[in-house]
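User: Structure tokens for this complex, please. No commentary.
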Amino acid sequence: MPIQFDHVSYTYSTGTPYEYKALNDVCLDIEEGKITAVIGMTGSGKSTLVQHLNALLLPEKGVVRILDRTITAGEKPKNLKSLRGRVGLVFQFPEYQLFEETVLKDVAFGPKNFGIPEAEAIERAKKAMAMVGLETRHYEKSPLEMSGGQKRRAAIAGILAMDPEVLVLDEPTAGLDPYGTVSMMSLFSRLNREMKKTILIVTHDMEQVFTYCDNVVVVENGTIRASMSVQEFFKDSSYCKEMNILPPALIRMKEQLIEAGFEIGEDVMDIDRLAEAVARQVKKHG
Amino acid sequence: MGNITLGRYIPLDSPIHKMDPRAKILGMLLMLVAIFFPAGWTGYAILFAAASLTIILAKLSFTFIWKAMRPMLYMLVFLLIINSLFLKTGTPLFTVGPFTMYSDAIFQTLYIAVRLLLMVMITTCLTATTKPLDMTLGIEDLLKPFTKIHVPAHEIAMLISIALRFIPDLIDETQRIIKAQESRGVDLKEGKFMERIMAILSLIVPLFVSAFQRAEDLANAMEARGYAPGEKRTRYKLLKMEGRDYLLLICCAALLACMIWLSAQA
Ligand SMILES: Nc1ncnc2c1ncn2[C@@H]1O[C@H](COP(=O)(O)OP(=O)(O)OP(=O)(O)O)[C@@H](O)[C@H]1O
Ligand SMILES: [Mg+2]
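Assistant:
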């Protein structure tokens, strides 16, 4: 069953002069078992959208359906904790949530809250830290002694240790070094492939969308501007132009080659096949 | 928590917004003194009317005041309980078992409630219509005469303005941290005693860390731009009292005089 938003609206600070309608009549289906990218300009409502997935924000109007739960506007949902254990949400700038004396303890905090016994929580924490590339020497460090990027990894590990069915990441790689970014994205990709986890990633990086994601959702001004497969979205640069997005380098190169007279099919989506297509035509003319 | 309104600046275009902050601060002080004169219900009715008029002139909504007032309701309920347990004067109203409710308990609570409401209304008239920066300038100017007796006027004003500046940020930060920890299964409303303590710790520690971080960043940013306390500084914005500012002060002074007179009558 997909995750569904059914005519969902959300307003911040209702009834004050700061009132702001952040989501407006959002209808959206998110496929299970896939990696979906959520893109859109700063302030378009991406974070607001994803915070509905584990019921941190409750819809003001409409219905959110996720896993076997239905969250309806105006109804007080019961047992949110179990939902939050199954839908792990990593916040934008999660490094500020660390509080335990040691990193290992902090990573184990989530699973312990969801009733996992101490010893097993620590085991899971160790595994999660290994996944995000934090070595054993970091176990006993205080979160305050870590660099920004290390804190970010620890915070992501803290959610991974909960072993959620759906993983939601709000700009997980903002501010990480290029190598860290790639290893983080490959980790998410692996979690999706090997453990069949549904993953949502909020990102500004089109290369990430192109390389790692299956579907893409474009948020604009609190509404869904587009929702489709990444293949479809990047088949040429027309969608990107329409939405003022700089397409990934490969697509830009493909467009330039087509402009220069090469014939390249819509389905050519990776560098090897592009090179092959170019080589073939060069030879033919050669 | 989402809608804490007390002390927030509301950007609107009204005659009150345009007034000189010094006039507004002085006016508020006069009115706050006026509230503390026991001028009876007539006095409070007059003050209420004056405060309401100011709120209307400032284009603020009364729901805004109500929201600012709401957190204090718990305090008032608590006060009512204390009062009804210990205040045994006035006419007995009703009796439940060994407990008798006296009219004074209700009156005393109501009295405080009215004063509190007036105070919230009046301070809101100032804080909601004055930009924090203007407030600082106003405070600094008003404190200037006291620099002769070594009151650090500029430093005090700077402290106040930084504190005011950070209140909304800290509220936002608290909410963010609450959400982040709730995502990790922290349950702030239920749970056993130890779990509760853990839950509160998981909020307070990150909040302190980020507050100190912010303070340090701000200090560095100020220093990087050459700020040094005690240095002579010029001002971009100069305050000027106009006719309406004097009018406000005269009105406030008249109200204060009226309250003094009313309480002398009583
Ligand atoms: N607590 C709040 N109170 C009032 N308005 C808010 C609040 N949080 C967000 N907003 C507003 O709602 C809109 C959407 O915010 P949101 O955080 O969802 O944007 P975003 O798409 O995640 O942006 P970014 O890419 O910068 O993270 C913004 O215009 C913002 O000003
Ligand atoms: Mg965001």
